[in-house]
């Protein structure tokens, strides 16, 4: 009997390999899920998405992940290139606030950390530091923010607003940071400002071609 119990306990603690599946969400998007090795962790909070248990991270875990990725970002060649691009404008801009649009959640729909969102935030920190605008107000707006996302950004000194409240704070002295946003976001930003600085995607395809 002892041997049998031992084997059962070992199996209970063993990592589980999930099968890949294609799930369609309520918006019609198809998601490939599973296929990863997941070790059970009873200490993690979980939510149900498409029939799967998805881990939700704490503020402490999100903060630790950001600090880790921020350190790597600051050592990267991309960071050094960004500083070179921004440095000539130090002290020349009359920016009175920073408005961040569409940053995205720090956790993907399937429960992983979003490295893209963390990297964009780290890049923004580099820009603010290089331009010496660290002490001016920073506003963030994205319908995708979770309660933990909002809490994390607030811990960094950001003011988190619900959409579309953030647009009302865009003015001719704003630095708007909007990467990979929908055309309507850039349209609203232009109408409210235009801002002193807009950091985003190449808008040529939006102005010279069909939207």
TrEMBL record:
> What Pfam families does the database record attribute to this sequence?
SRR1
What domain of life does the UniProt record list for this protein's source?
Eukaryota
Cross-referenced InterPro entries: SRR1-like
Pinpoint the SRR1-like domain residues.
83-208
Protein's recorded name: SRR1-like domain-containing protein
Which source organism does the UniProt entry give?
Pseudogymnoascus destructans
